[in-house]
Amino acid sequence: MTLVEITKAHFDVALDIRYATDNNFTGAPIYTRQACYLNEEAADKLATAIRLAKSMGYRFRLFDGFRPTEAVQALWDHTPNPHYLSHPANGSPHSRGAAIDLTLLDEMGEALDMGTEFDAMTPLSHHGVTEVSEEAQKNRALLLGIMSAAGWDFYMNEWWHYQLFKPRRFATLSDKAAGTRMMQE
Q1: DSSP bridge pairs for 39
Q2: Residue 99: beta bridge partners?
Q3: Which residues of the chain have pLDDT under 50?
Q4: pLDDT score at 23
Q5: Where are the alpha helices (DSSP H) in 27-181?
Q6: In what side-by-side order are the strands of the sheet with 161-163?
Q7: Which CATH number characterizes residue 163's domain?
Q8: Which of 114, 100, 107, 115 minimizes the C-alpha distance to 59?
Q9: Phi, psi torsion values for 53, nearest 5 degrees
């Protein structure tokens, strides 16, 4: 499986790869590189979502894409919570290059209010909650609509997480194996 690098230049997105920084729930960098990769099918569906969002005056900020199996293990070791993280033995849609974590930006480049921060492991992060502001509910519905129209599935517990349907059809990749298969679009 080939992974495509999702760059600002080729995809017109803002990158904020949180697991390459200490600005994540672990408080420490998990990745050694500040880059986002997806498998080819996911990259194509992201390009469709980008076009749809742009037609309405929005862009995306990406928080995560491909997550090597080593990173899946590190996150689980820190916070073994099956409501928000995949158990390493099962593999994650992220470790298959088949998932993206993102939010919407307005025309000024400001993130829309989604009611919680990215990776807030709380019921307030779930789709369909009414305990966040009406604006945040509308913004989540907008994001859900764009991503669904572009062919993505969603994860009920995380407003930011979208994945390909049936992601297990793709193999999981470790950082070492993926390094030999990555390509830049």
Answers
A1: 3
A2: 163
A3: 180-185
A4: 95
A5: 40-55, 69-78, 134-149, 175-179
A6: 14-15, 59-64, 99-105, 161-163, 153-154
A7: 3.30.1380.10
A8: 107
A9: -65, -45
* Separation between Cα atoms, residue 54 and residue 173, nearest integer Å: 31
Q: Just list the catalytic residues.
A: 158
For residue 167, give the amino acid letter: P
* Residue 172, pLDDT score: 93
Q: Which of 49, 20, 50 is nearest to 35 (CA)?
A: 20
Whether the predicted model's global pTM rises above the 0.90 cut: yes
- Provide the domain limits for residue 39: 3-184
pLDDT tens sequence across 1-12: 789 999 999 999
Domain count, the chain: 1
Length of the chain: 185
Which residues, 6 or more positions from 13, have their beta carbon under 8 angstroms from its beta carbon?
6, 50, 59, 60, 61, 62, 102
At 150, give phi and psi (nearest 5°). Answer: -85, 0
